[in-house]
Amino acid sequence: MLLWGIAILIHPIMKRLVTSILALALFTACGKKDAPPTASAPSATSTAAHPTLKFSALPDQDSAAQKDKFDALAKHLSTQLGIAVEYVAASDYEAAVDLFKKGEVQLAWLGGLTAAQAVKAVPGARSIVQGDSDPEFMTYFIAHKDAGLRPGNYFPADIAEKSFAFGPTLSTSGHLMPAWFIEKDSNKKPAAFFRIKPVFTTSHDKTCELVQSGEVQAGAVNFEVYEKRVKAGTTDASIAQVIWKTPTYPNCSFVAHPDLEKAQGAGFTDKLQAALIAIKDPALLAAFPRKALITAKNEDFDEVKQTATALGFLP
């Protein structure tokens, strides 16, 4: 009888304990199942729905500084577009065009000449954005202060007797257009015009450095890069002097690959164009370097295309 009484007393306690344990287990399981997902920024990993947008640019400036600036742009675009965006550095101008031709990048910041090459090689490719200065771009002919060349408003024919540096061979502002103005004024191609065989540099920064050091007496350089260097104090305008400013011509643009519409969905290229034009942060615009980005279309660069064709730069 005593054991039966203890059993009756314990039974309700055990029942409540078992019930509590079951309720706790059920609450824990449901809590894990129903917890809302944690939001996160787009990763650099491609997904089936939205593969990574990769872009490149002409390596016309110091490579390390250029990478830092374009990495910052990639981060900004990733936030604005809601997809992963990655900057892919190109080893040289030819590589920047090849990356685009092969579809390894879907967006490329190119000069007038390289953009013409890309658009010709990839049907459906189109320029979507240019810098505010690109419709009326210029080349500066610069010379060391001891070269005996003085600033003027006309083509400096005396450079024929000086050592001279062009920029990269596929540079619009560093080679194509300077060659055009030399031939237009002298009726001679650069190879026949210069007494000393010209050299080609890997970037506009390098051209400025060679002229300032006196290693070459004169050179042709992207005016934006020159102005930026003077402002930063890396080029001394009293030593590497501007002796002539060319007439204006159209230059750089962001060229979009037609695969963007397939990879990201119809209308994405226009969305990307709007996101680029909306950039107001000077730190992001310094990647180009430009003060603003504006709308562009292929026809804006017909003048450069025609010049490149006439000089044999674009078969």
| Strand order, largest beta sheet | 2-1-3-10-4-11
The H/E string reads HEHEHEHEEEHHEHEHEEHHHEH
Number of strands: 11
**Proportion of residues in β-strands:** 5-15%
Helix/strand class: alpha/beta
The share of residues in helices is 40-55%
Low-confidence stretches: 1-47
The Rg value, from CA coordinates, equals 30 Å
Task: Using the alpha-carbon principal axes, give the shape.
Answer: globular
Q: Sheet bearing the most strands, described?
A: 6 strands, mixed
Number of helices: 12
Distance between the termini: 110 Å
Average pLDDT metric? 87
Task: Describe the 3D structure.
The radius of gyration is 30 Å and the shape is globular. Helix 3 (93-101) packs parallel to helix 4 (112-121). With 315 residues, the chain is an alpha/beta fold. Strands 2-1-3-10-4-11 form a 6-stranded mixed sheet, sandwiched between helices. A 5-stranded mixed sheet has the order 7-6-8-5-9. It contains 12 helices and 11 strands.
Describe the structure concisely.
The chain has 315 residues and is of the alpha/beta class.
